[in-house]
Amino acid sequence: MAIEEIKTDKKKYLSLLLLGDEEETMIDRYLDRGTMYLLQEDGTAKAVCVVTDEGHGVLEIKNIAVLPQYQRKGYGRQLIHFVVAQYSHKYSVLQVGTGNTPSTLSFYERCGFHRSHVVKNFFTDHYSHPIYENGIQLVDMIYLTQRMP
After folding, report:
1. Which of 102, 135, 139, 136 is nearest to 118 (CA)?
2. Contact 138, 100 (CB under 8 A)
3. According to the model, what pLDDT value does residue 127 have?
4. Under CATH, which architecture does the 2-147 domain have?
5. Residues lower than pLDDT 50 in the chain
6. pTM for this prediction
7. Residue ranges per structural domain of the chain
């Protein structure tokens, strides 16, 4: 398994990015200012992660996605561990925003995140169509944080 930074032609991985954030205009808001990592194994791209500097020692995971056939195999967790190892010397907090889907919230909590705050109506205010995850319409953005070691 290898994780590499993608510095150019980030949109080449748009289909993978859209798994983590299904509206391209939203991805466009952070992709150029973010640092993108691609997880590959045996020459196959399996997962992607984009992080941004939000100021004041906060690093945010803006997008993390694993191809469906490789989900629940630890690739997402590997990307989070990688990000923590790469940035713990520079940032004090790692945060992520997600919808109110129990399985997703549980994943982040198992990775060491704790619920921080809620941005009401984020998905209904910022997306052109209703967003559903596991049959649940996403309305509010739930932020989770963890202290960097």
Report:
1. 139
2. yes
3. 95
4. 3-Layer(aba) Sandwich (3.40)
5. none
6. 0.95
7. 2-147
